Amino acid sequence: MDQLYVGWTKPGEWINYTIKVNQSRNYKVGLMYTANGDGAISLDLDGMAVTGPLKVTSTQDDRDTVAWRQWHHWNKADSLTTVNLKKGVHILTLRVVGNGNMNFDYLEFR
Questions:
Q1: Per-residue pLDDT, 1
Q2: Which DSSP string corresponds to 15-78?
Q3: N or C: more exposed end of the chain, with fewer CB within 10 A?
Q4: Domain residue spans in the chain?
């Protein structure tokens, strides 16, 4: 697979992404992730909050008895929220606001 992801998150941590928006419009936001318990994230755009807390549902599977594999039950939330993005280059900030213990592979805008 050879992909990188952000992991071992804690509440209060954040990551900035530089995004280029080609067309001003509303976009559904998706997230590929794992979570050891329910958590929450929020999104800022250019330093301004664009969402409140967004629930990230646990990917914990009690049927899997191998502890390290709990971090490999990836899930894709296709539509966490919808955000209005204006054409241009922006800084998008993903903030961990609840629980932590999440790994993020990618955000998707549709």
A1: 53
A2: EEEEEEESS-EEEEEEEEEEESS-EEEEEEETTEE----EEE-----TT---GGGGGG--EEEE
A3: N
A4: 14-109
